[in-house]
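Q: My labmate handed me this sequence with no annotations at all. I'd like to see what the chain might look like in three dimensions before we decide whether it's worth expressing. Could you predict it?
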Amino acid sequence: MTVFACASCGQVLSGDLRRLAGTPAHAGPDRSTVPPGCYAIDPEPFGAPFATRAFPEERPARRRAGAAPRQAPVSAGKRGTVVVHPHDAPSLRAHPDAARSSGCCGPCGSFGPNMTCGCGVALATLVADCHGPYELRLDPVRVYAFDAVTGRPETLA
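A: Here is what I predict for the chain of 157 residues:
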């Protein structure tokens, strides 16, 4: 079992969590990506900054002559974020900059880390808006993992 802590002050952020083999698919609104008591490492980029990518080629007849292909934002953020159930890190606090928690029905997670440790370090992003997943993502640079029994550090890769 694994426990996560703040890399800055050492405060324990989670209880004992079991690692999942992969990153589960988005389960739908109000349903957590990861079940309580578990975590997953997402190898894909997550969050800000964002880059643009062209949509798959549209049919030429539907695109105006000379118009550029449409673009979509894609994450160019960190790889290896730790995905946990939002209730598995109860000591985290909302970031003092309310703009980071913008969204329709909850924070969308697009404006950088929106949760802080008690020491003030922004180290997690809560995603809880109605149009996306319900999850908490720990920054792999700002947290560390250790074995709950032995206390030895664990590798997140």
